[in-house]
Amino acid sequence: MAVGSPARLVTVTINGQQYTVPEGMTILEACRMVGIEVPNLCYQPLLRPWGSCRICTVEILGRRGGLVESCAAQVRDGMEISTDSPACEESRKFVLQMYLVDHALDCPTCDKSGECYLQDNTYYHNVYANPYRRPKIAGPYKHLSDLIDYKWERCIICSRCTRVCDEVIGVTAIEVLKRGLEAEIGTAYGMDLRDTTCTSCGMCIAVCPVGALTDRKFAHHPWELDATETVCGFCDVGCTLNVEHNRGLVRRVTHLWERGVNYGYTCVRGKWGYEQVQHPDRLETAMVRRGDELVAVPLDEALDLVAERLRRYQGDRFAALASPDNTNEENYLLQLFTRAVMGTNNIDRLATRSQGAVDRALLDSFGLPVSTNSVQEMFTHSACALVVGPSIGDRAPVASYWLYWSRNYRETKTVVISRDDYPLCHRAEVWIRPPEGTEAAVINAMARVILDEGLARPAVQSSTFQEWVASLRDYEPERVASATGIPIEKIRRAALLYATGGRGTPGTPGDEGYPPSVIYHTLAHQDGDVYAAAVALNNLALLTGNAGRPGAGVIAFRGPANAQGTLDMGCHPAFLPGYRPVSDREARRQLEAAWLPRWSATVVDGFEPLRALPATPGSSLEQMIEAIEAGQIKAMYVAGSSHEFAPPIEPRLLSALEKLEFLVVEECFPSPLTERAHIVLPAAMFMEKDGTFTNADRTVQRLRLAVDPPGDARPSWWLIQEIARRLGYQLAFSHPSLVLQEVTHLTPIYRGIIFPRLERGPLTWPVRGLAGPAEGAVRLGATVPGGGWAIWMEQAFGGVESALQFDDGLSRERVRFVIAEQATRTDEER
User: Fold this and answer.
1) What's the confidence (pLDDT) of residue 683?
2) Domain residues for 21?
3) At what angle do helices 86-99 and 117-124 cross, to 10 degrees?
4) Is-contact 384 518, C-beta < 8 A?
5) Do 426 and 521 lie in a common domain?
6) Count H helices, E strands: the chain?
7) DSSP-assigned beta bridge partners for residue 663
8) Cα separation, 680 vs 663, whole angstroms
9) Residue 809 has what pLDDT?
């Protein structure tokens, strides 16, 4: 079957009812798809069929029938299946009785009680007596690490934990040790997990169907807890989490299988990061500087003081920095406050220099600072992945899972260019380890190989792109290989693999060209000339025609959870919300009609209501530093988020902040920012507020409040409204959903994205409106006359020309079908 092509359908009869399902699915997957539950213990979504537990036995009716394991047997056209025949029930009961011979019967004290698959199946099949008995064999708890315990007598050796560690996480830190009755789960030579390649993701605990692997930090029973589905706030992959809490505290994070962009899988941050939310160092009170000290004051008093001081700095003497960890709604209100209340376009993100360089490279190459494709296309279309930058396993862990998965199940080829040594490097077809600062040279040398081999298929002819192509004459592969010490064979093989979609040798590309290749990069997490390397990657995609097609493009992981959404909302000195230039008169007129009528009729202590929005670009972060040092910017509002996983703050910015006359810092933790602040406002973290995040591939998701923020801490959207109200500007949004409604109305790219739709699942912008498809990958695609790449919108988005392409066929159900089909193909078929 061609990658991404529609699945062929077959008709099967299950329990007397006919159904039509995709060919290639297992019987278990087909039953799940039509809503029929088949008991199982060793089956796990995304993992290859194992067939060890025998609980999923079904009966095939007819002459060639019999009992089969439904997780491993594929459907055939005309097949008749019974999931509840007497033979099935008898077989399952026997298997359960065998499991219970040595299984510990300590359900009341077991951590898994209430959500144990073996417990559930024992009740379901009414196994209340066991004729197969002997004295129980028991063993002590084994502490595999400071996070994970193992209890041998509860283990059923289903190998879920070892398979997820190998096939998805890609580290193979644990394995099945010994054989037969003595088999157990453990590490090589009894090492502590911390001394292995283990990433502490906790997925072995998550997939364990019984209580064999347990969370050492969890000391409750599931029925004691409430659960809230939300989105992780620690990186821009945007994983869905199930936050379990009671009495105002988060007790653990669990997994919602086949939900969200992560399908339930998480990393160490998602699993254990809740400890940051309830860290004892969290800021709980507002503070005001008196002399050299910050003194705690009531929140209302601090807000009054903020408003009183800001009245002196209306205009370009004021600037604001938005937190890429705050929600879309909060960042929208901060840029609105900066433009419509303070009267300046001096608004940017609190980002590192490298993050800014990546944004600038995307903007210069594609017309917008956005990733071009969906990560979900790794499941269906991508045939080769070029992974560049610091370890993606550390920077965007769950995205790295799909690279391992796609290698195992779709035979996707991988090329890694990284100075870091991590597991994917050793599994890749090519690993290039460039000396510091030479990434751009290596990428340009690859482009030169592609040109020399006649594999270039550029779809853009802009002057900037042509200048880059002309510059490749200076990047002869031999010269680059000699200068960097990288074998020329590696550079050549990497180039050919990327250009040919993993084939590795030039040949006849076919009607649709070579298979698609995607670029993942984490350049925003390293120092050096990041801009040059990022532009080179973007141009490489353009040169090979890997832009504007499924499974291709460039996906940049920039770090903070809402780095993309912060830009979308207009936290940029040159762009209004939706990337409309501040010089766009029609865009300003539309926003003025919505924003400026909120001013009170009376002037508050000389603070003038604005009559028009500023029309000239403001200062970027770098320019703000220069303006502060020059005495032009005198007051700032900085929204920070200094948790453990946050990027460091630029030393030059910290030095400049000391020269301000007035600095307001909204923060979660004591930090270098609060040390320099005149007033500190305690802020809520992601588990303590409602709103939306937009992840690295432009997927918008719902953030939900799980626990209340500590003390006087408040979400940023509430703080900004309170300050604006004290300045005579009436913002009256009672909930973030109302803010998103305004965003949807005023921002073309977010049109159709509202809370009720997001309750059903993520949406990738732009969507086609309420009547159109709610999902689908969107890619940068067409050239604009006159050269250059730009974003445009359809008529529904305001009548501007568009370069975005829709792929309505890539739904979550389609992804699921392709996963099932790929997982059950034989090696010969692959």
Assistant:
1) 96
2) 9-99
3) 130
4) yes
5) yes
6) 27, 32
7) 636
8) 9
9) 33
Tokens in use for 153? 């007598």
CA atoms within 13 A on the CB side of 373: 29
pTM of the model: 0.91
Is 754 within the bounds of a domain? no
Neighbours of 745 (CB within 10 A): 12
CA distance 563 to 397: 17
607 and 487 part of one domain: no
Query: For residue 717, what pLDDT is reported?
Result: 97
662 alpha carbon, distance to own chain's centre: 36
CA distance 578 to 749: 6
Query: What's the rounded Cα separation, in Å, for the pair 249 and 393?
Result: 29
Cβ(411)–Cβ(385) below 8 Å: no
Q: Which residue has the tokens 């973007």?
A: 538
Q: Would 119 be classed as within a structural domain? A: no
Q: Clarify whether residues 344 and 463 are in a common domain.
A: no
pLDDT for the residue numbered 791: 31
Q: Name the burial class of residue 602, with classes exposed (0-12), middle (13-18) and buried (19+) by CB atoms within 10 angstroms of its CB.
A: exposed
Q: Name the packing angle between helices 488-499 and 439-452 (round to 10°).
A: 70
State both tokens at 582. Answer: 């501040």
- 265/17 Cα distance (integer angstroms): 34
Give the CATH number for residue 627: 3.40.50.740
Q: Which residue has the tokens 């762009």?
A: 575
Strand pairing partners for 598? none
Alpha-carbon distance of 147 to 215, in angstroms, equals 6
| Per-residue model confidence (pLDDT) at position 5 | 54
Q: What phi and psi, each to the nearest 5 degrees, are found at residue 82?
A: -120, 125
Query: Residue 224: which CATH number?
Result: 3.30.70.20
Same domain, 373 and 442: yes
* pLDDT at res. 779: 43
Residue ranges of the chain whose pLDDT lies below 70? 1-7, 510-511, 603-604, 606, 768-830
Alpha-carbon span 742 to 764, nearest angstrom: 18
Q: Cα(517)–Cα(377) distance, rounded to whole angstroms?
A: 11
Distance CA 657, CA 665 (A): 11
Residues 6+ apart with CB under 8 A from 405: 46, 167, 168, 378, 379
Query: Which pLDDT score, from 0 to 100, does residue 772 have?
Result: 43
Domain boundary among 277, 299, 325: 277
Q: How many residues are given for the chain?
A: 830
**Total domains in the fold of the chain:** 4
User: How far apart are alpha carbons 607 and 313 in whole angstroms?
Assistant: 9
> What pLDDT is attached to residue 828?
45
DSSP state of 810: -
Q: Quick check: bond before 766 cis, omega within 30?
A: yes
Specify if 181 maps to a domain: yes
Residue 574 tokens read as: 């040159």
Contact 721, 333 (CB under 8 A): yes
Same domain, 499 and 612: no
Same domain, 54 and 202: no
Give the pLDDT confidence of 380-423 residue by residue, as tens digits: 999 999 999 999 999 999 999 999 999 999 999 999 999 999 99
Q: How far apart are CA 819 and CA 815, in angstroms?
A: 6
Same domain, 389 and 403: yes
Of all residues in the chain, the percent with pLDDT exceeding 70 is 91
User: 79 near 130, Cβ under 8 Å?
Assistant: no
Last residue of one domain, picked from the residues 678, 704, 732? 732
805 in any annotated domain: no
Taking every pair of Cα atoms in the chain, the longest distance, rounded to a whole number of angstroms, is: 91
Structure tokens at 642: 């200094």
Q: Looking at the structure, tell me whether residues 492 and 460 fall in a common domain.
A: yes
Please say whether the dihedral angle defined by the alpha carbons of residues 335, 339, 343 and 349, taken in this order, is positive or negative: positive
Per-residue pLDDT reduced to its tens digit, 30-72: 999 999 999 999 999 899 989 899 999 999 998 778 999 999 9
Give the pLDDT confidence score for residue 638 in this predicted structure.
97
pLDDT at residue 824 in the model: 45
CATH of the domain at 424: 3.40.228.10
